[in-house]
Design goal:
single chain, 4 helices, SPRY_dom, E3 ubiquitin-protein ligase TRIM9, coiled coil, B30.2/SPRY, B30.2/SPRY_sf
Length: 370
C-alpha cells in the first residue's frame, strides 16, 4: 500500500510538472502570436502611410500637369511660384516621409532557453527539497541555489514610492520599486478610467517609473502595479490615487507645425506668410469636459482667410482645417465668417477680423459642441 501511495505521489508531481510545461507552452505561443500580429499591424500602418504619401504626390503631379496645359499665361504666372514652392517642399520632405526601411524588424529576436529546465528534469531523484509547496528531488541540491529558488517563485507586490508619484497638467507619473525578496522580469502598470471604473493595462516593461499622458483634466485616477517572472504574475501593489490639474495649460506644438509656420514667444505665437493654408496644433488633447481659450490677432494682411478650431492629431497640415473630416473650424476674413467641417461650410455671419481682434474658442465635450 505504501508503494502504491508513493507511486501515486510521484505520478502526481510529474503530472504537475507536465501541466506547468504545457501551460507555459501556451503562454509562449500566445506571446509569439501577439508579436507577429504587432509586426503585421506596424507593417500595414507603414504601407498605408506610404500609399497616402504616394496618392498625395500623384495628386500634386496631376495638378501641375493640368496647370501646364492651361493656355492662360496670366493665370499660370499667378500660381507658378506657389506650385514651385509646393513641389520643392514635397521634394525636401520626400525621403523623410517615405522611409523605406521597415519600422520594425521582420525577424523574431527571441531565443527560448530550455537548458536549465532540461538539466533540472534530468537530475530529478529522491533527495528531498521543498519549493513553492511542491517537493522536488535532486541529487545536486546546490543546483537549486537561492537565486534559482527566488527565480522560480512568483514575485511579491511592488512598493510604490510616494515622492516619485505626481501629476502635472493631464499627465501622471508613478514610481515604484520591486519587492526586496523577489526576482522580477518586468512590471505591469494598470490605471482606471478616472471615474472609479475598471483597471486597464497602460504599461508593461522593466522600468520602475512611468508617465501616462493624455488623461482627463480634473479627474482622480487610481493606479496599481504588479510584477511577473517566468513563474507567473505576482500580487498587486497598494492602490494610489492621483488627481490631474483642474485647468489645462497648453502651448503650440512645433513638431506638429507645417514647415512654413514660424513659432516664437515660447510657443505662444505663430506666423505664416505662405499663400497656402498651413496648420499647427497645440501640445494638448481633450476628450471630455468644457474648455475655452482665446487667440489674439497681432498682425493681419491682405484680407487672408484665417481658420481656427479643433482637429485630430492626424489632420492634414497643408490644407485648411475643416477641409477633411478630421477638423472643425471657423474660417474668417475681414468681412464675414463661416463654419467648416468635411469641406462643407454653413452658418455664415457678417463681421470679420482686423489687427488686435480677439477670437474665442469654446469646446464642450459634454454636449459634443464646438
Amino acid at each position: 500500500e505504501n508503494s502504491l501511495n508513493f507511486e501515486t505521489e510521484i505520478s502526481s508531481q510529474c503530472d504537475n510538472l507536465i501541466a506547468t510545461i504545457k501551460t507555459r507552452k501556451q503562454q509562449l505561443l500566445t506571446f509569439a502570436r501577439k508579436e507577429k500580429d504587432y509586426k503585421l499591424r506596424i507593417l500595414r500602418e507603414q504601407v498605408m502611410a506610404c500609399t497616402a504619401k504616394l496618392q498625395q504626390t500623384t495628386g500634386l503631379i496631376q495638378f501641375c500637369i493640368e496647370a501646364l496645359k492651361d493656355n492662360d499665361n496670366m493665370s499660370y504666372l499667378q500660381i507658378g511660384s506657389s506650385l514651385i514652392n509646393r513641389v520643392s517642399n514635397v521634394e525636401m520632405t520626400w525621403h523623410k516621409d517615405m522611409n523605406t526601411s521597415p519600422w520594425v524588424s521582420p525577424e523574431f529576436d527571441l531565443t527560448l532557453d530550455c537548458q536549465p529546465v532540461l538539466m533540472a528534469i534530468e537530475q530529478l531523484n529522491f533527495s528531498q527539497m521543498k519549493l513553492n509547496g511542491l517537493i522536488l528531488r535532486s541529487p545536486l541540491k546546490e543546483f537549486f541555489t537561492p537565486d534559482l529558488v527566488l527565480a522560480l517563485r512568483s514575485p511579491g507586490p511592488p512598493i510604490l514610492i510616494p515622492d516619485e508619484c505626481m501629476s502635472e497638467n493631464n499627465g501622471i507619473t508613478v514610481g515604484w520599486q520591486p519587492h526586496p525578496s523577489s526576482f522580477v522580469e518586468a512590471f505591469i502598470l494598470e490605471l482606471d478610467d478616472g471615474n472609479n471604473g475598471s483597471f486597464r493595462e497602460v504599461y508593461c516593461g522593466k522600468e520602475t517609473v512611468c508617465t501616462v499622458d493624455g488623461l482627463h483634466f480634473n479627474s482622480i485616477y487610481r493606479l496599481r502595479v504588479k510584477a511577473y517572472n517566468s513563474s507567473g504574475e505576482g500580487v498587486y501593489s497598494d492602490v494610489i490615487s492621483l488627481q490631474t490639474a483642474d485647468v489645462a495649460w497648453f502651448a503650440l506644438d512645433p513638431l506638429s507645425a507645417h514647415p512654413d509656420i514660424i513659432i516664437t514667444n515660447e510657443n505662444q505665437t505663430f506666423t505664416c506668410d505662405s499663400y497656402e493654408h498651413r496648420v499647427v496644433l497645440a501640445n494638448m488633447a481633450f476628450s471630455r469636459g468644457v474648455h475655452y481659450w482665446e487667440i489674439n490677432v497681432d498682425r493681419y494682411q491682405n484680407n487672408a482667410d484665417i481658420a481656427l478650431g479643433i482637429a485630430r492629431a492626424d489632420v492634414s497640415k497643408d490644407k485648411m482645417i475643416g477641409k477633411d473630416s478630421l477638423g472643425w473650424s471657423m474660417y474668417i476674413d475681414n468681412k464675414r465668417s463661416w463654419f467648416l467641417h468635411a469641406d462643407r461650410h454653413d452658418r455664415r455671419c457678417d463681421g470679420g477680423i482686423e489687427r488686435s481682434s480677439v477670437i474665442g474658442v469654446l469646446l464642450n465635450m459634454e454636449r459634443h459642441e464646438k
